[in-house]
Amino acid sequence: MNDEIEKQEDTVWTEELLRQRRKRAAIMAVALLAFISLFFWVTLIKLGANIANRPL
Amino acid sequence: MSQSHKETLLKLQEPASVDVGSAADYIALMKPRVMSLVVFTALVGLVMAPGAMHPVMAVAAISMIAVGAGASAALNMWYDADIDAVMSRTQGRPVPSGRVTPDAALTFGLWVSGLSVLAMAVMINYLSAALLAFTIFFYAVIYTMFLKRRTAQNIVIGGAAGALPPVIGWAAAANSVSIEPLIYFAIIFFWTPPHFWALALIKNDDYQAANVPMLPVTAGVKSTLTQIVVYAFVLFGVSLLPYTLGYSGLFYAAGAAALGAIFIALCVALAMARDKHRNRLAGMTFAYSIFYLFSLFVLLPTDKVMGL
């Protein structure tokens, strides 16, 4: 753990690296949102089918 | 993990001890070109399965297969970083080039693998999730960690991992597995050896330097060429199974026979080529093999639509 912190402190975070990291975080956020919306739509479809097929 | 492998990984960690990988590096970690063939064959398996699947469910299933395939590729790149660093074809990959640390690649691969299997189980069905989990395990553990460095039959047995996506696609749509998807499995399974051995012939020096026992390294070029021709003939027969067993029509049979005949002709020409022409012909065989598999999997649904 301490080693990891030391390594992080040793790394020179240039503007280019910081820009890359921000871009990576943004893409990760988009991927996460896509995953969540996929779950949402699949849930709606499954729920919809079950409501339609329920015994009356 | 062997001692030398650990030492190489420790050395590799020195240039990038903190993860500075960009989004593009993480995408490269998932081998997008391999993933595209996986996605395509899985999609064909899904389309060919009986019954209709809601388009959103189909997108979810294919996405999870793609993500799972990408995760297993990341695990492969983590474990193979030492040999990737030696080979010219793979030196530029994110881990050996030091842009992504081995620890980051391993963490990414494990998390994304788990997530894809879990999502497949929750969103689609348990059978396709189990098949996806088995595929990831087979590629990352059985092929990468055990077969690749130990036997010349590495890509023959390991080819099973690459052959499973259409079966997963079918299972996602039908929640069962029948003979038909197993034929698709067999097509990719018998296609894999001549495809990879053609590449291994070109990159023979690389594999020798990395000490990977590919067939040309262990058995020699002549024996490899003979086996490429044998597999091309076997593949020809297997590719006609959808027709002979009554699952596809004449359109598919004619297309598969024509494509297969060209592949056999190329493999025979490669086997008979003189040394100075061999690499060029091996490159052509490798490139054509990709076109061949892609075309076979285009013919299958096209034939179904045409209903000949």
From TrEMBL, chain A:
Keyword presence, Transmembrane: yes
Protein name: CoxF protein
Highest taxon in the source lineage: Bacteria
Keywords on record: Membrane, Transmembrane, Transmembrane helix
Transmembrane parts of this sequence: 25-49
Top-level taxonomy: Bacteria, Pseudomonadati, Pseudomonadota, Alphaproteobacteria, PS1 clade
Protein species of origin: PS1 clade bacterium
From TrEMBL, chain B:
Miscellaneous: Carbon 2 of the heme B porphyrin ring is defined according to the Fischer nomenclature.
GO CC annotations on file: plasma membrane
Transmembrane feature ranges: 34-52, 58-79, 100-120, 126-147, 154-176, 182-202, 223-245, 251-273, 285-302
Catalytic activity: heme b + (2E,6E)-farnesyl diphosphate + H2O = Fe(II)-heme o + diphosphate
Function: Converts heme B (protoheme IX) to heme O by substitution of the vinyl group on carbon 2 of heme B porphyrin ring with a hydroxyethyl farnesyl side group.
GO molecular function: protoheme IX farnesyltransferase activity
Top-level taxonomy: Bacteria, Pseudomonadati, Pseudomonadota, Alphaproteobacteria, PS1 clade
Annotated keywords: Cell membrane, Heme biosynthesis, Membrane, Transferase, Transmembrane, Transmembrane helix
Biological process terms in GO annotation: heme O biosynthetic process
Top-level division of the source organism's lineage: Bacteria
Pfam families named in the record: UbiA
Subcellular localization: Cell membrane
Keyword Thylakoid in record: no
EC annotation from Swiss-Prot or TrEMBL: 2.5.1.141
Biochemical pathway: Porphyrin-containing compound metabolism; heme O biosynthesis; heme O from protoheme: step 1/1
The name this protein goes by in its record: Protoheme IX farnesyltransferase
InterPro entries: Protohaem_IX_farnesylTrfase, UbiA_prenyltransferase, UbiA_prenylTrfase_CS, UbiA_sf
